[in-house]
Every structure is written in structure tokens, then in C-alpha cells.
Design goal:
The protein is globular and about 80 Å long. By secondary structure, it is of the alpha+beta class. Helix 1 packs antiparallel against helix 2. The chain is built from seven helices and 13 strands. The model has no long low-confidence stretch (mean pLDDT 94). It folds into two domains: 37 residues; 211 residues, Aromatic compound dioxygenase (Protocatechuate 3,4-Dioxygenase, subunit A, Sandwich). One of its GO terms (biological process) is catechol-containing compound metabolic process. Belongs to the intradiol ring-cleavage dioxygenase family. InterPro entries: 1_2-HQD/HQD (IPR039390), Catechol_dOase_N (IPR007535), Intradiol_dOase_C (IPR000627), Intradiol_dOase_core (IPR015889), Intradiol_RC_Dioxygenase (IPR050770). One of its GO terms (molecular function) is catechol 1,2-dioxygenase activity.
């Protein structure tokens, strides 16, 4: 088949995919081609606009490095990340809602004992975080891992300033005790703009959008026999809760980071200055049973 035009090219590409061995890959690529070609026809895409799109995607790839994933940022700001998340997590009652991973997760965060202060060199208002991990049915989950990370009081993450900090900070992994509980100290994170000095930032500016995210702490919670939970807890007094640049806010994930005067904190620590306290309990979705064999 040859001499393709705007009406025949789509069928020709789909036919070339007919022998794809993996049926799921075949289904995805076939749908992608059909929707992509329909989009090009729908907007009557010009050659110059096609070139601009290719250049944009090229710059997006070039902006990626070990600590920055511009394609995840693009997915986040277009709502694709939250759409995939919504399709993947139709949760039962008692399970904590999920949200986006974000571009600053570090897989090898140091494990620390419960009660540790993970702020390191970060300065700011002290924050005590207390919580528990249970199965969606309410049973405590002992030995669950709780990965946490957050921005500093200026809205920057440790991986954005490793040289200045001398290493990771405001980031750690904990394990729950026999009753599923954990707690740690850090500092109060600030709201911040997502990195907007690259192609995603240019896209936001071109569409009249701001790049800001409300203040939050990231959590990744895992326990044997349960689905891993990826979520944030947002500060109820933060701006941008209703216009998060990556569409990640859910009402159930907004909590009070309660202000306290100097005194004895709930974990018994003597505080000589005001601090904040976040108390939040996480429910994990049981993993689906796998068939034997």
C-alpha cells in the first residue's frame, strides 16, 4: 500500500501493528495512533506547529537528569498523572486516597528510628508528625515502611540543593511499631512553585497558569500483603489548595498542621519555641489475592 493521504494513513499505520506479539502493547499503540492522528486532523496541525511540538518534547527530554524528571512534570501539569492514578486506585472504605508521586522521590532514603529529627541542616518551624498505618479494615500494620520527604521553608527540596546541604535532608524512611505507629520531627514545609525554568514552565506561562503547589508532606507507605500507598498530606492553611498546578489535592488529604506554643510536645520532647503538629493515620488497601500456580 502506498500513496497515503490524510484519510488512509491511519489505517496503514494500524495495519503495520497487526503482528505485534504482545497483545497489550498492540492495543495501546493502536489506540495511540488512532487518537494521535485524530488530534492532528482535528486541529489541522501545520508543519510549523508540528516542528514546534517536536522541539518542545526534545527540550523536555534534555531537561531531565538524575534529580529532575521533566516528563513527569509535564504529565503532572497536564493532569495525566492524576488520571492514571484515579484509574489505578478505586479504593475501598478505610483506605487513604492517593495522589501523584512527584519528581523528587529518592528510592534510597536513609532508614531512621521512629522519633528521629530528619531536618538536618534545614531551618524553620519545628514540625512533629505522628501517625499510624492500618489495613483498610482497621487492623494495625506492624513493620510497615513509611517513606517521607518534603520541601524546606523556602519551598526547595534537598535534591535541588545537595551541594549546599551536603546531602539529603527532610527525607527518611521509618518502620511502624507493633501497634502500627510512627512519629518523627522535621520542619514545616512551605508552598512552592514546581520547577518552571524549563519547557513545562514555558507551557504554563503560555497558557496563563501559575506553577504553585500548596504546602505538603509526601508519604509512601508499604506493608506486606497491601498495595503501596503514594500520597501527600496538605496543610489546611496553605494557599493554592484549590488551584494546585498538578491537580493533586483531595479533601481527605488536607489536614491541620496545628500550631503549639513552647512546652512539652505530645512525644515528651521539651520545646523551647513554638512548633506545629500533624497527626494523620493511613489506611492501606489489601493487595488482590493471586491465584495459585
Amino acid at each position: 500500500m502506498r500513496d497515503f493521504d490524510e484519510h488512509t494513513i491511519t489505517r496503514a499505520v494500524v495495519e503495520r501493528l497487526a503482528d505485534t506479539p504482545d497483545p497489550r502493547l498492540k492495543a495501546i499503540l493502536t489506540s495511540l495512533v488512532r487518537h494521535l492522528h485524530d488530534f492532528v486532523r482535528d486541529v489541522d496541525l501545520s508543519f510549523e506547529e508540528w516542528q514546534a511540538g517536536i522541539a518542545f518534547l526534545t527540550r523536555t527530554g534534555q531537561a531531565c537528569d538524575r534529580h529532575r524528571q521533566e516528563f513527569i512534570l509535564l504529565s503532572d501539569t497536564l493532569g495525566v498523572s492524576m488520571l492514571v492514578d484515579a484509574l489505578a486506585h478505586r479504593l475501598r472504605e478505610g483506605a487513604t486516597e492517593t495522589t501523584v508521586l512527584g519528581p523528587f522521590y529518592v528510592a534510597d532514603a536513609p532508614e531512621r528510628p521512629s522519633g528521629s529529627d530528619i531536618a538536618g541542616p534545614l531551618e524553620g518551624t519545628p514540625l512533629l508528625v505522628t501517625g499510624s498505618v492500618v489495613s483498610a479494615g482497621g487492623a494495625p500494620l506492624a513493620g510497615a515502611t513509611v517513606d517521607v520527604w518534603h520541601a524546606d521553608e523556602d519551598g526547595a527540596y534537598d535534591v535541588q540543593q545537595l551541594d549546599a546541604l551536603g546531602g539529603l535532608a527532610g527525607r527518611a524512611r521509618f518502620r511502624t511499631d507493633a501497634e502500627g505507629r510512627f512519629h518523627f520531627w522535621t520542619i514545616m514545609p512551605a508552598w512552592y512553585p514546581i520547577p518552571d525554568d524549563g519547557p513545562v514552565g514555558a507551557m504554563l506561562k503560555a497558557t496563563g497558569r501559575h506553577p504553585n503547589r500548596p504546602a505538603h508532606v509526601h508519604f509512601m507507605v508499604a506493608a506486606e500483603g497491601h498495595e503501596t500507598l503514594i500520597t501527600h498530606v496538605f496543610s489546611a492553611d496553605s494557599p493554592w489548595l484549590d488551584s494546585d498546578a498538578v491537580f493533586g489535592v483531595k479533601t481527605s488529604l488536607v489536614a491541620d498542621f496545628v500550631a503549639h506554643p513552647a512546652g512539652t510536645a505530645p512525644d515528651g520532647r521539651a520545646m523551647d519555641r513554638p512548633y506545629r503538629h500533624l497527626a494523620y493515620d493511613f489506611g492501606l488497601e489489601p493487595a488482590p489475592a493471586r491465584a495459585a500456580g
